[in-house]
Amino acid sequence: MSLPIRTLLVNALFDDGTTGAIAIDEQGTVTDRLLHGDDVAAAERAGCEVVDVGGRLVLPALAEPHAHLDKALTADVAPNPTGDLRGAIDAWIAAEQSGAFDHDSMVARVDRSLAMLLTAGTTLVRSHINVGGRIGVSYLVAAQQAAARFRDAMDIEFVALTHMPMSGPGSETNLGALNEAIDIGVDSIGGCPHLEPDAGACIDLVLDLAEQHGRSVDLHIDETLDPTVLTLETLALRCSDRAPRVSASHCVSLGMVTSEIRDRVIDRVRQSDVSVVALPQTNLFLQGRERPVATPRGLTPVLALKRAGVTVAAGADNAQDPFNLVGRSDPLETAALMVMAGHLLPQEAYDMVSLDVRTLMGRGAAGTQSGDVADLIAVPSGSVRETIAEAPADRLVLRGGRLVARSTLERRLYIG
Predict the structure, then answer these.
(1) 82 to each of 31, 86, 288, how far by Cα in Å?
(2) 327, 67 in Cβ contact below 8 A?
(3) pLDDT exceeding 90 applies to what percent of the chain?
(4) With 90 as the cut, is the pLDDT of residue 195 above it?
(5) Which residues, 6+ apart, have CB-to-CB distance to 258 below 8 Å?
(6) How far apart are CA 156 and CA 126, in angstroms?
(7) Which of 18, 110, 172, 331 fits 62 for a cystine, CB–CB 3.0-4.6 Å?
(8) Cα–Cα distance between 366 and 358 in angstroms, integer?
C-alpha cells in the first residue's frame, strides 16, 4: 500500500461483487483498492480520515454535461400552457419581459439546482447560460455568483449560449455580450448554428473565438426532426483541422435520415473528434408532437454513434422549466431514459452520465482503480442496473476523496 494517504473508504462494495477499502492520497487520487486488514489498520494508525460507506456500492460520481441553470425551476413562474416548443419560447419571453427573472431570484434558483445535482451525486456540471440581447451577461453573472459556493465540491463550467444572430447584420449586440462573457471567465462558447441565417459563418466565428481565447465549444445542433437539416456535418467538416474541444448537443435530425446518410455523417464526426451529447428528457418532451402516429423519439442515434467510436454523453438539458416541465436534476433519471428510450444496457447508460461526460469535457477518469480521480458516489445497491432502476435517495458523494454531500431517506410501513 502506498502511504501516506489522506482518506480511507472502508466497507465498500465494488461493481464486480467484491468488497474492500479504497485509499486516496492528498491529490484526491485513488492509490490502492481491496486493501488487506493489516493495511487498513496501518492506514488508520497513520491518522488518515476514515469514511465508512457501510457496504454501499461505490461507483464513479455522476456528471451533467448539458444543463440550463438560468432557466431551471421556472415551470410555475413561466407556465407553458401548450407544452410544445413554441409555447415554451413564448412563456420564457413573456416572463423575461415581465421582470420575473431578477438577479437575486436567479442566484437562488441556480443555487438550489446545484444543490440538487450535488446531493444526487454530481461532481461535474456544464451549464449553458443565455448571453446577449437585452440581458447582456446578467444571467452569467448571477450563475457565477451562485456557483462560487460550490467550487470546493463540484467542477462547474458555463457555456455562453449566445442570442441570435451571431454573425451578419444585427449581431453586434450579441457579439459584444459574448466577448464580455469571455472576459469575465465563461468556459465555453455556444450557440445554435442551425437557426442562424448562415450556419457555416456562425460555426467559423465560434471556432475562431474559441481558438483565440483558449475556450471549448458546445453548440446546440439540429434540434429538429427535419432530415434535411444536417448542420452536424457542416460542423464536423469545419472542425477537421481546428484545435478547440468541440461538442454537439441534441443532433436530433441525425436520427431521421437514411442509414447511408447517417453513417456518412457519423464517420465525419468521428474523424473530426467532435463529441455528441444526447438529451432525452427535453427531446422526448418537445419533439414529435406534430406526429400523432408513429411518433419519433426525437433522439440522436446513440447506438450508431457509440459503435462508430464517437464519444457520446447524456444530459438532462432543461429541468422544471417551460421546455421540460419535470426533471429531478439527477443524472440517474437521464440514465434510465437512455435505457428505456435509447435501448442502451445499464452500464452503457451509466457511463454516459459519468465517465463519458468526463471524457467529453477533458477530465481524468473517476473511479475506484489506482490512478483514478476519487470522485465517487456510494449507494445502497447491488449493481449498476439496480442503481439506475431504483435511484436510491440514500447517497454519499465524494469529490477527490472528501465527503461533500450525504442524503438519507427513512421509510416506515405501518401495516401488519
Answers:
(1) 53, 8, 14
(2) no
(3) 89
(4) yes
(5) none
(6) 6
(7) 331
(8) 8
Residue from 334, 319, 375 nearest 69 by CA: 319
Share of the chain above pLDDT 70, in %: 98
* CB-based contact 203:219 (threshold 8 Å): yes
Please state whether the predicted TM-score (pTM) of the whole model is above 0.85: yes
Which grid cell sits at 163? Answer: 442570442
Residue type for position 161: L
Report yes or no: 162 and 177 within 8 Å, Cβ to Cβ.
yes
> Dihedral through CA 130, CA 134, CA 139, CA 145, nearest 10?
150
Q: Which amino acid is at 20?
A: G
How buried is residue 313: exposed, middle or buried, by Cβ count under 10 Å (0-12/13-18/19+)?
buried
Closest CA to 398 of 370, 365, 366, 357: 366
- Other Cβ atoms less than 10 A from the Cβ of 169: the count is 7
Q: What 3 state SS string does the chain have?
A: CCCCCCEEEEEEECCCCCEEEEEECCCCEEEEECCCHHHHHHHHHCCCEEEECCCCEEEECEEEEEECCCCCCCCCCCCCCCCCHHHHHHHHHHHHHCCCCCHHHHHHHHHHHHHHHHHHCEEEEEEEEEEECCCECHHHHHHHHHHHHHCCCCEEEEEEEECCCCCCCCCHHHHHHHHHHHHCCCCEEECCHHHCCCHHHHHHHHHHHHHHHCCEEEEEECCCCCCCCCHHHHHHHHHCCCCCCEEEEECHHHHHCCHHHHHHHHHHHHHHCCEEEECHHHHHHHCCCCCCCCCCCCCCCHHHHHHCCCCEEECCECCCECCECCCCCCHHHHHHHHHHCCCCCHHHHHHHCCHHHHHHCCCCCECCCCCCECCEEEECCCCHHHHHHHCCCCEEEEECCEEEEEECCCCCCCCC
The answer to whether 352 and 314 have CB atoms below 8 angstroms apart is yes
Residue with cell 457555456: 159
pLDDT tens-digit readout, 61-114: 999 999 999 999 999 999 998 888 889 989 999 999 999 999 999 999 999 999
**All 3 cell numbers of residue 177?**
455580450
Distance CA(94)–CA(91), nearest Å, equals 5
Q: Which of 121, 13, 113 is nearest to 60 (CA)?
A: 121
